[in-house]
Structure formats: structure tokens, C-alpha cells
């Protein structure tokens, strides 16, 4: 990276952080050093996503040492998607890198990301090569969700991560032209198209304690991911309806024939089973429709994605 030590445009790094005070200082210093090796014209925006620990105190301390390190504190835990959006809205860079606060996204990839960007890539995706740490269930769940979205949503998010470099043009599109409330950043960036470049990395083991995602927050992300990118579940309901109808015709035919032959209509069990089956199909179908209606409701309410309660080094009157 000798060429990029010349004056380069501003590079922003956005670091969403939720209860990361343990490893934050080290992580930010590592990211800062890596950026410094590429250019002195950088900024790091740490977005404290309503942490309950001293994350923002750490950001404050870092900001005092280097004014290129800035911080935003959200008023509560809005989730990583909102934290990333907040960062994107306040970043000033010609290129913006999004990276986790736990060093699971290796900063050593940053120079190559910047190089690819300088060579014309508008989105540089970092793709996970392996994820050894995850349990079998986690891997299986991630695989199923990614497969569903890839197959039916028509975009490929298999092994993709939120670790990305985005050109200013892409950031502006995400901030200004994609007004949806519920977001699935990984999916959105694949959906955009443009000049993409893929880099591969091995997921490092987590610094500090365990993952910040709870089972429910992952489930929520999965549902958002699905409902944002495909209406296939709704179509499945229609297909199920037709399947039940066809089955119904057979049963009606069978019943009529039995009746004509003078046989008693058979089976209490049949009635109970079909009642239960149809009942559960209807319940599940209503649930699926409910998910989409809930999504429409969220969009229609039009509430802000996040609220900021404090900031350091950032002009809050001017989100981009
Ligand atoms: N994170 C966040 N808000 C949340 C959960 C996580 O900003 O509600 C941040 C977290 O601090 C980290 C990144 O998102 O920088 C990824 O989180 P984590 O490492 O827990 O997830 P995983 O590595 O399992 O994807
Ligand atoms: Mg992590």
C-alpha cells in the first residue's frame, strides 16, 4: 500500500458497539492504526447502541486522545441495523467501512478493501470463509436463512457479513433512497448491484465475552430478512389452500360414493384429523400474513430508526 500514502479522500469507519467496553479501546486502536497505515485522512465513528456498560465512556476517552475518533450514543438499544444506519448518516467519508467492535472482522482486510475501492469497486463485501466458533445449530440456522433469502429473494447473502466498504454514492443511496424502516443491511447491499468486489476472510474468535445476539434478536433478524426480500411465504399459503381444496374434493367424492352405496360415513378420527390439520394451516397462514401486516404497520408509522442521546466530535445538526 505504498501508493495510498499520498493524499487520499476521507475514509470513514463505522463501528457499531453494544456492551463492548472490555475490548473497545484495543479494537478502536487496532482499526485506527490500520487506517493510519493507509491514509492520515480518516475518521472512526463508534455508534454506542444503548450499551449498559461503559462503552461510551471509552469512546469519550479515545476521542480526547484523537479527534478523528468520534462517537454517537443511541438513546437505547435499537439493534445493530439501526446503529449501522446512524453511522452511515453521520459519516463524511468518500468511502465508508463498516466493521464490528469485537475484532471478529479483521482490520487487516481494510487496506485491500481501500485498494479495491481505489480501483473502482463501489461495494467491497467481506465474505466469511469459515465460522468455526459457531455451534452446529447456529451454523444450520444461518445456512437455512441464507438459503431461503438467496433462493426466493433473488439475492445472494450466503456467508456474507456486515463488514463492507461502501463508496459515497452507495452510502447516499442507502441513506436517502431506501426509506424502509426495517432493514437487513446485508441484503440491501446485495440488492443494489453496482460495482461489487468480494474479499474472503476467516472469522476471528471473539474478543471478550459471548455474542451480543440473543436467540430472539436473531429470530427477528431472520424474519425481517425474509419478509423484506420475498413474499414467497404468502404464495405458499395460497398453494396450501389449493392443496387442501383438492384433498377436500377427494373426500367429498369418497363420502358421496359411500352414501350412494348405503354405507355409513366412516370415521370420527378422519374428521378430527382433518379439522386439526386445516385448523393449524389456517393459524399458521394468519401468522404469516400477520408478519407482513406488522411490517406494513411499522413502515406506515414512520418512526425514526434511532434516537441519539449524546455524541462526541460530531455535528449533530447535520446528518447527511
Ligand atoms: N451490536 C450492536 N447492537 C446490538 C447487537 C450487536 O451494535 O444490539 C454490535 C456489537 O457490538 C458488535 C456487532 O454488532 O460490534 C456484532 O455483534 P456480535 O459480535 O454480538 O455478533 P456476531 O459476531 O455474533 O455476529
Ligand atoms: Mg461478533
At a glance:
The protein is of the alpha/beta class. The chain folds into 2 domains: 11-229 and 305-312, Spore Coat Polysaccharide Biosynthesis Protein SpsA, Chain A; 232-301. It is built from 10 helices and 8 strands.
General description of the model:
With 320 residues, the chain is an alpha/beta fold. The chain folds into 2 domains: 11-229 and 305-312, Alpha-Beta Complex (Spore Coat Polysaccharide Biosynthesis Protein SpsA, Chain A); 232-301. It contains 10 helices and 8 strands. An 8-stranded mixed beta sheet has the order 7-5-6-4-1-2-3-8, sandwiched between helices. Strand 1, helix 1 (21-38) and strand 2 (42-48) form a beta-alpha-beta unit. Helix 1 runs parallel beside helix 2 (55-65), helix 5 (136-153) runs parallel beside helix 8 (215-229) and helix 9 packs antiparallel against helix 10. The chain is elongated and about 95 Å long. The two termini are 30 Å apart. 32% of the residues are buried. Magnesium ion (MG) is lined by residues 100, 102, 104, 206, 211. Uridine-5'-diphosphate (UDP) binds next to strand 1 and helix 3.
How do the strands of the widest beta sheet line up side by side?
7-5-6-4-1-2-3-8
Distance linking N and C termini: 30 Å
Helix content bin:
40-55%
Low-confidence stretches: 1-5
Principal-axis shape equals elongated
- What is the residue-averaged pLDDT? 81
What CATH architecture label of the largest domain applies?
Alpha-Beta Complex
CATH domain fold name of the largest domain = Spore Coat Polysaccharide Biosynthesis Protein SpsA, Chain A
Task: Give the quaternary arrangement of the chains.
Answer: single chain
User: Quick one: biggest sheet?
Assistant: 8 strands, mixed
